[in-house]
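Listing S7. Sequence submitted for prediction.
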Amino acid sequence: MRKAVGSRIFLRSISAFLLITVTLLLFACSGQSAGSGQQTLTIWSSYADQDMELLIKNYQAVHPNVEVIHTTHGVLNYFSFLKERMAQGLGPDMAIVPDPVLPSMIEQKLIEDLEQYNLDTSNFYSKALVSLRAKDNHLYGVPFGFDTMALCYNRSQTADPPTTLDAVLSQAGQGKGIAIDSGFLSSAWGIGAMGGTLFNSVNQFTLEEMALSRWLSWLKDARKTPNIYVDYRRDILFDLFTTGKVAYFPCWTFEMSALQKKLDNKLSAAVLPGNLNSAAPVLEIDSLVLNARAATTQKRLALDFAKFVTRREQQLAFQSAQDTVVAPINPKVLLDLRLLPIRRNLIDQVQNSFLIPVSQAKYQTDRLVYYADPIYIQVMQDDISPTEGAREFINQLNQPVDRKVIHRSTSITSEAGTSKVQGDTTRKADYLLQLMQVQFQIFRRPIIWLQIVLFTVVGVLIWLIARRLNRFISNFSQRFTE
C-alpha cells in the first residue's frame, strides 16, 4: 500500500513539473513572438493627447515598428508623481518637464546625463541649452518648447497695444484697462523694463536694488490708477480680462488656449511694454528627459524620438496644429505673422526674456518665489516702501541656502494653474487615479490584448491537458497496484 501511494505521489510530482515547464516555455515563446520586431516607447507629459498626436503619428509613419504611448497628466502633482515612480524604478521611458523641476531630478539621479550621447545641438536656441545644464555643465534635457509671457489683448477693444509703460497709463485713462499679476514670476517682466537684469550671460545673479525698486514703485502707483488692476489673485485677473472688463492682460503662453476658448478670434498677443529697456519675462523650457533606470535600448529610442520632434519641420507642424501654445525652440522655424500672429510675436518675446539657470542653487525658482511674493504683497499694501522691499529681497536671497524652509512649487505652470504656489505633495486619491490612468493607457495597446487572449487560450489548454493526464496517471497507478 505504501509503495502504491509513493508511486502515485512520484508520478504526480513529475506531472506538475512538466506542466510548469510547459507553461513557462509557452509564456516565453508568446512574449518573444508578440514583441518580435516591435518596440514600445512610453512618454508622460502635461500636454493634452491631441497636442502630441500629430508628432507621434509623424514619427510612427517613419518608424512603423515603434508604438509610442503618450500619457497625459494634469499639472497638479504631476511632477511629484513622476519623480516618485522614477525613484521606484518605474515610470515612463521619457517625460516632458519644465526646467525648474530638473535640479531635484538631477540630485536624485532620476534622469539621464545626456553628455555621453554627443547630441547635435544646432537645432536649438543657445539660451535653451544654457538653462538645461547643471553644475557639471552636462546636458540633462532636450529642449521641446518655450513657455513665457506676452501682452494678451482683446481686439474688440483695441488695435494698438501699448509698447511702453507710459502708454499703459495713457490708455488706461482712455478706458483701456489692464490686469497685472503682482506675483514675482508673473510680473518679473517689469524689472527688465526698468533696466534691470536678474542674470548675466554667464548665469551670475546681477539684480540691482534700484531696478527692482523702480518696478515696485510703478506697480504700487499704477494700482491707484483707474482701470488698472494690480493683484496677486490670478484667477480674478483672468476673469477681468475674459469678461471684457479690461483690454490687456500679461499672460503666460500655457494660458492662451483657455483664453482663446473664452474670447475666440478676439484674442491677440503682442510684446510686453517696456520703459528704460525692453520688458523681459521669465522664460521656462519644457524639456524631454530620459528615465535613468530605463533599459539602454529604450533610452536610445527615446533620444531618437526627441531628435525627430525637434526638427524644423516637426516644430513647424506642432505650431500649426497644437492646442497648447508654446514657442518653438528651433531657430530655423519661421512663422508667418499673417497666419500665426500670436505665435510669431511670441518668438520676438522669447528673444527678450531671461532664464533662471538650474545650475545656481541659491537663485532657483523656488527660492525666488519664496522670498519675493511676501515682500511684493507688503509693498502693495504700503507696509514697507519699494526701496526697503528691494533691499530685503536681495539680502534674503544672498543668505546661505536652507532647503528646509522652501516648500514651494518649482514651475510657473503649476503656480499659475492653481492660482497660488502649492506644496510639492501628492494626495493618495490623486496618486491612485493617476496610477489607474497609466494602467489604462497600457491596456490600450493591441499587443497587450493579444497576449491576454493567448495566455487565456494556453491556460485553458493546459487545464484540459492536466485533467486528461491526471486521469491517465490515476488509471495507470490503479492498474499498477492491482
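Caption to Listing S7: primary sequence and predicted C-alpha cells for the chain studied. The chain is about 50% helix and 10% strand. The chain has a mean pLDDT of 82.
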